[in-house]
Amino acid sequence: MKKFPWKWTLKDAVFTKDKGSVFSTFSCGGGSTMGYKLAGFDVIGCNEIDPKMMAAYRKNHNPKYSFLEPIQTFKLRNDLPDELYQLDILDGSPPCSSFSMAGNREKDWGKEKKFREGQAEQVLDDLFFDYIDLVEKLQPKVAVAENVKGLMMGEAKQYVRRIYAAFQKAGYELRVAPYLLDASKMGVPQKRERVFFIALRKDIAEPHMEWVDMFQRAPKLDLDFNGPAITFGEVRSEVGKDYSHTERGQLIKHRIASDKCMADINMRLHNKNSGFNSMIRYDHEVCRTITDGEKDFRDYDGMACSDHDYQVCGTYPLDYDFMTDSREGAKYMIGMSVPPVMVAQIATRIYEQWWS
Fold first, then answer.
1. pLDDT per residue over 43-79, tens digit each?
2. Distance between CA atoms of residues 355 and 20, nearest Å
3. Which domain does 68 fall in, by range?
4. What confidence tens digit (pLDDT) does each residue in 100-143 have?
5. Distance from C-alpha of 250 to C-alpha of 196, rounded to nearest angstrom
6. Half-sphere exposure at residue 22, Cβ-oriented, CA atoms within 13 angstroms
7. What's the whole-model pTM score?
8. What is the signed CA dihedral for 42, 188, 333, 267, rounded to 10 degrees?
9. DSSP code, position 76
């Protein structure tokens, strides 16, 4: 497994841009973009619906092409530059809260709602198919789409079957199952499990097909990672943020070793079911999934996690400009993003095993 830095800066990074071209959809602040860049790919542009996310993306990445609009209208454009029809990889992370195990799941499926992703009314479970429509239009060599672990659980599996059919119709081959990957085994100081669909265009795939099982053939791609765990204590900042003036800042003083989140303390002290998304980070553990929600606290000093803590655990560069109006800053954007190092590992395997 290639070693990428979990602590790095944009100003000192060397992006070779010699491995192929990438365009990013649902680009957020550019988590996956930075991963492709670390792996040596040239990310030529992005599509994003959220103006604040796009502003941060443009500030940090200065893309050649950037389209601020819903993917539903972007996929219908007839004025796209020729470079987008010659891509090596079309990347996408369709918003996924309707499939998250922490959300309403089935209750939200098929409903048009104003989800937080983009602050626009959308049916989130349709966005994956809008992405595949764009794949069919642009015909990149490879399509890489990321989503939450919950997509592989319960009734959500019906969507996976539809996703397979849509990729086949678009002219792509997938492995028999999506890849469920854990970032903590890929050089990321965060336990973040995500599902990746990686599809190879059929005209490229067919000469290299192998039997996956007795029923199906697909291009071989080894995405087994077993890197050593990196604990929170190894990467956190020396000093956290002082939140002692807040209710949660006072609550953390009553933590015991078995508490995982603020809700555990609240239930024990006040019989109050509040604070499940406000995690307690322990030095001896790998940081559990960073979300876009409430502040997290450190067992080490009882202070709130610093932006540095979120950046290194999310493998975001330390000089990334989150911009003053980007909602909650580092935590929100990193909680919405795929860790760059996670994507860098996948992109490197694609290049090594399929390109070279």
1. 999 999 999 999 999 999 999 999 999 999 999 999 9
2. 9
3. 21-230+335-355
4. 445 443 444 444 555 555 555 655 668 999 999 999 999 999 99
5. 40
6. 29
7. 0.91
8. 170
9. T
